[in-house]
Amino acid sequence: MKKNTLLEETASQTAGPYVHIGCVPNFAGLQTVTKTDLGNSLNIDAFGGQEITIQGKVYDGDGASVLDALIEIWQADGFGIYPRGNTDIAMPSNAYTGWGRCASNLETGEFIFKTIKPGKVIFNQDQYQAPHITFWIVARGINIGLQTRMYFAEEAEANKTDPVLSSIKDQSRVQTLIAEKTSNGNYRFDIHLQGAQETIFFDF
Amino acid sequence: MKRKDEMPNRFLPREKHSHPLAYFPDYKSSIKRSPQKELLKFPTTPSEESGPVFSPSIIGELDNNLILNHADDGKSAIGQRLLVFGTVRDQHGRPIPDTLIEVWQANAGGRYRHKNETYLAALDPNFGGCGRMMTDANGNYEFHTIMPGAYPWPNGPNSWRPAHIHFSLFGEAFAQRLITQMYFEGDPLIGLCPIVAAIQDEKAVERLIAPLVMEKTVPMDCLAYRFDVVLRGREQTLFENRPEGL
Ligand SMILES: [Fe+3]
């Protein structure tokens, strides 16, 4: 087999404190390029699955909430199918998008997503992953975007056999990936960049 | 996703040396905002091998022209006029078509149009600092803007950012999601910047520095800088017999 010479990846750099200008310009007070910010809505109405709300904050090593974070989520629909699938659904359209983007509130640090509960996602021919949502976090001081996942407490059976969760050596940390159900359909998922509760971040 | 050859390929692991250290005390904000525990290494799954697809219909006519997209009729942004262009590829050198690029930057005086911005440089009423575009069928992109100014920032007693443009890229899968910064050839501040220095590999730093490309300059209009981007590639085992690769 011929060995390829690979190009080297372009380095990541911090998004900085003014990421809003480029990624959520309306949030930054700029209506320059569009009237709504991309990722504002996941178009959940188009799907009709189980609607859920996810709220949370990002905390730094001092336990202070990060006020300049930008959070993106990527998830499968209620059937466990990623919107792109093999069908190349372009966004925005009438379809559920699976992708959301939210800036932390500049005063409180709170972020919020209205989405639907994802189904189990294929892992390989004979194995599924427990329902989960992929999170990607950038902010000033974060040199390379942080990737993690949110899982659901009520999916205990599926979580037990999830290939990613079960690969975690220190099982006491698994709870950092499990959202707290605050009421029916409402979840809290706080992300801790450091400290005793440091969230498990992934090198996928 | 029933047959194996319809499953997307895994991505190659990220090249650690090409990226900045997460914890780099010279860049003060990284001290309390970098994970201290080891990241969980796991091969990509379909969750990372897929990603959002954006329709070209989201892009407006002036979205890739920062000189004009925030300017009053008949006006334009103040500053050295630039054309920034390049190609987005994966590690195998394959162009990535139809992918969204978002850019943002300070104005010619080094000031951002943002609520939290306190720098004393003046705002330019005709400059917003925000733009976006999709790569074409060959992975190429270009946008018009003005040369951003260097600006001071609260890191050390006298810290200045080199002139830079922030880039956000999606690629074709969430595993490729990247935010980076483009710098300009010849800027003496690059070597003094701890955000740049968090990248340990000098070659990786060089790749963030866009060269002036005289052939692409427009006479009596604008200078041109090239910034090519390489996103992670997929493992190629399943498709090695196909002429086009994946
Ligand atoms: Fe900046």
Give the structure's gist in a few sentences.
Chain A has helices at residues 19-23, 156-161; strands at residues 51-56, 58-59, 70-75, 99-103, 111-116, 121-124, 127-129, 132-138, 146-152, 178-183, 186-188, 191-192, 202-203. By secondary structure, chain A is mainly beta. Chain B is globular, with a radius of gyration of 19 Å.
Model description:
Chain A has 204 residues and is mainly beta. The longest helix of chain A has 6 residues, at 156-161. Chain A has helices at 19-23, 156-161, and strands at 51-56, 58-59, 70-75, 99-103, 111-116, 121-124, 127-129, 132-138, 146-152, 178-183, 186-188, 191-192, 202-203. Chain A has a single domain (37-192), classed as Aromatic compound dioxygenase (Protocatechuate 3,4-Dioxygenase, subunit A), CATH 2.60.130. Chain A contains two helices and 13 strands; from the N terminus they run H-E-E-E-E-E-E-E-E-E-H-E-E-E-E. In chain A, strands 4-3-8-9-10-11-1-5 form an eight-stranded mixed β-sheet, with no helix packed on it. With 246 residues, chain B is mostly beta strands. Chain B has one domain (55-230): Protocatechuate 3,4-Dioxygenase, subunit A. Chain B is 5% helix and 23% strand. Chain B has helices at 46-49, 194-197, 202-206, and strands at 40-41, 81-90, 100-104, 130-134, 140-146, 151-153, 159-161, 164-169, 178-184, 209-210, 223-226, 229-231. A five-stranded mixed β-sheet of chain B has the order 4-3-8-9-10, with no helix packed on it. In chain B, strands 2, 5, 11 and 12 form a four-stranded mixed β-sheet that branches. In chain B, a hairpin with a 5-residue loop joins strand 6 and strand 7. The longest helix of chain B has 5 residues, at 202-206. In chain B, 46% of the residues are buried. Residues 1-6 and 239-246 of chain B have low confidence and may be disordered. Strand 13 (202-203) of chain A pairs parallel with strand 1 of chain B. Residues 161, 164, 166 of chain B line the site of fe (iii) ion (FE).
